[in-house]
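Board work, copied verbatim: glutathione transferase
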Amino acid sequence: MATNSVKLLGSWASPFVNRVELALKIKSIEYEFIQQNMINKGELLLKSNPVYKKIPVLIHDEKPICESLVILQYIDEVWINDPPVLPSDLYDRAIARFWAAYIDEKWFPLFRSFAVAQGEDAIKTALEPVFDGLVLLEDAFKNCSKGKKFFGGDKIGYVDIALGCFLGWMRVIEKMNNVTLLDEAKTPGLYNWAEDFSADSSVKDVMPETNKLAEAAKNLIPKIRANASR
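↓ predict structure ↓
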């Protein structure tokens, strides 16, 4: 039985933390957000996630659950009230898990490399595989949505949350590099999906403001570049 003892360890700018917030919001679950300092990690985080020592961590009745996609599945299985996050059909559920894993394991590393690329040639080289990945996700959207607004159909679901949590950062990186990632001509399905996702009331309450993320990027991206060059 789910209770109201829910805490989320995270950072407001993390898309992976934002994923969990989206699921909690969609499910109307009350929670306490505990901001983490990822340079000087606190005792609660280290105790709750001793293996990876990273965010997000959901603490439910004093029991920690780690890794954002695992947390999404946990939320859906514990709080069984509508709307569901994962599809009820077992095949559709497997496909949703496949594309969420693709986003994290394949597409996001490409996007991250593009985000921190320096110089016109490096940016151009890093951009191409990001576009290729979005074309794949365009096809996935057509198949998963079955003609409806979201990957999950009429309502936001697992893959919507898995990809949608990056939209704020995508907009920031677009502005910084003067590019368009979700092109209405090349990926019309994803373009319209992003508009519908961002306009959803649950999303608007949770997604960080683009200008605020842009300010965070000024400090974060140089640090990522410095670490990558070591």
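The mean pLDDT is 94.
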